[in-house]
Write a structure and sequence with these properties.
This protein is 15% helix and 20% strand. With 104 residues, the protein is α+β, with helices and mostly antiparallel strands. The protein has one domain: Beta-grasp domain (Ubiquitin-like (UB roll)), CATH 3.10.20. Strands 2-1-5-3-4 form a 5-stranded mixed beta sheet, with helices on one face. Strand 1 and strand 2 form a beta hairpin. Bound molecules: FE2/S2 (inorganic) cluster (FES). The site of FE2/S2 (inorganic) cluster has 13 residues, from loops.
Length: 104
């Protein structure tokens, strides 16, 4: 599928997301320097990204760890926040927009 990524500078680019990748892996594959300090283990929140509201439901349920972490960054997190390391590929996410946050 193809998604549009809006980076920290507000630049948007269309990238391919393959079905064997998490969103974090897709972002890394496309040279986005997402920190991911904990290595994709749902314990740091530095891989935080925003989905567009229309596609957010297609990204699946947040895990409990993810909910807890997003609560800890509730000054920046929104209703459509996801930890990209916990966001699996779904066909219905084709055309989604993923926004990265400055300072993440
Ligand atoms: Fe640490 Fe996703 S990489 S929570």
């Amino acid at each position: 599928i193809n998604i549009t990524v809006v980076d920290e500078d507000g630049e948007s680019r269309e990238v391919e997301w393959r079905d064997n990748q998490t969103l974090l892996e897709c972002l890394h594959k496309n040279q986005y320097p997402v920190l991911a300090t904990c290595g994709g283990n749902a314990s740091c929140a530095t891989c935080h990204a925003f989905l567009d509201p229309e596609h957010f439901p297609a990204s699946g349920e947040r895990t409990e760890e993810e909910e807890d972490l997003l609560e800890m960054i509730d000054d920046v997190a929104t209703e459509t926040s996801r930890l990209s390391c916990q966001t699996e590929y779904h066909d219905e996410l084709d055309g989604a927009t993923v926004t990265l946050k400055p300072g993440m």
